[in-house]
Amino acid sequence: MVVNVATNLIALAIVPTHDLVAALGLGFGLANLAGSVIAWRILSQRLGGLEGKQIRSSLLRMHAAAVPGGLLALVVVAVSGSVLPPGKLSATLVLVVGGAGGLLTYVVSARALQATEVTGIIALVRSRLGK
């Protein structure tokens, strides 16, 4: 929390107002990273080690799977910005098409990269839906 507050205060002081939301997101991400490192150290000491190689491999696959979905969402933003005037219609289009398309692309990419955590969640959702 301290990292997040400090980063947000720095962002408020130096980042232009139109970029402030992205800067606040960066602060949130840095706070999560710091919290993860601290939690990793504590858990590793208490449990006598963690499966670092397996966790690192899973994280790399999940991050790699996020790239195509993120790129698709950026393309949707760029296309809608050049075709439609700014407003509720373009924002809704970006949200629905970019968000849903990005999510679907992530799931397909994660399955192709054999990210077992994602395939496990998909199996759980399918079993809950009765499919």
Structure commentary:
- With 131 residues, the chain is mostly helical.
- The protein folds into 2 domains: 1-50; 51-131, no CATH class.
- The chain has 5 helices and no strands.
- The chain has helices at 2-14, 20-47, 52-83, 88-112, 116-129.
- α3 packs antiparallel against α4.
- The longest helix has 32 residues, at 52-83.
- 7% of the residues are buried.
Blueprint (SSEs and pairs):
Blueprint: H1 2-14, H2 20-47, H3 52-83, H4 88-112, H5 116-129
Helix pairs in contact: 1-2, 3-4
Keywords, please?
single chain; 131 residues; mainly alpha; 2 domains; flat
Q: How many H/I helices?
A: 5
Cα-based radius of gyration, to the nearest Å? 19 Å
**Approximately how much helix is present in the residues?**
over 70%
Largest sheet: none
The secondary-structure class comes to: mainly alpha
- What sequence of helices (H) and strands (E) makes up the elements? HHHHH
Distance from N terminus to C terminus (CA atoms, Å) equals 41 Å
Strand content: under 5%
Quick overview of this protein structure:
With 131 residues, this protein is mostly helical. Helix content is 85%, strand content 0%. It folds into two domains: 1-50; 51-131, no CATH class.
